[in-house]
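Example record for the data management plan.
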Amino acid sequence: MDASVLAERSDDANLARIYKRCLITLDELMEFIRDEFWCYFNEAQMIPANKLLQIQGQFEIRMPKVSRSLIQSGQDALLISHVFETIMRHLNTDSAPEVTYRKYQYLKILMTSLENMNGDSLPICHYPSLPALLIHLNFNATIFKNYMVKLLHEEINACTSIEEKIETISFHHKELSQMTVKPGMALSTSFPSVQMDLVTWLFNEMTHLEKKQTLGIVAPIHFKESIEQDTEKGIYSSLTVEELALFVKVQKDTGVLKNKNMKQVARTIAKDWHSKQKDNISWQYLYNSMSKVDVGTINSLDSKLMDMVNMLRKMRGGIK
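Corresponding structural encoding:
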């Protein structure tokens, strides 16, 4: 609603003044209902620019006080900095063009939890209160995952025997696996949870050490920044259009793909698929590429499929 339209003017009739005041009150009531009962609204809806500016201002006011409180309670200043930088990045329209009500509600709950953080109210675990809270709320930002990896990696590599190293990894694997994550909570809903990524990394390292039985340095995994998937549209792939066309053709020729109308398949894929080189794929070009295959495309797709096969073998090796 345009606030200037509701501004009272000196020549307004009394009835007009009443109407404007009623509309302002109703607008404020609607904002309150949306904030408090957000789950009944469209969570994917974008927050209007004027509302977002208010939210940014509120967070900027609250952050210094919360930061001082966390530091005074003995929490890691580096992690505190990471958390607040991430919050503001997710509220910044330059780095997050679409700030949704779902994202706002998550950040609001996170900020309130940081303000009221009490170690006694968190599930008992081995880790300090702040990391424990962030895992509980599934603060699955890449920077936090890498912070936790560094923390665990340093402790693991300080071990002087293979048995001690496996025991330490096993301990953290168990601790993280048993931690409770609040249902439905995630900074980014389409990213893996902090718990899942860390547990998977530890499991793979433990499996490797148990098989090799050699005392080596455990390499820390480095999680890479990904596209914010809350606002992603379609499927993003590292395949070129030519590789994608060949991949579809191979599935058709081997009976994996059962569709008969390949033009319709090309239309469906082109609608939502983004290739390595193009955001928008021409379905006609995709369809024509299925019948025009060159050796270079075969070799490049063969290499990528072998990477997938090797990953499947690695996954199978990790299952007992």
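Summary line stored alongside the record: The mean pLDDT is 83.
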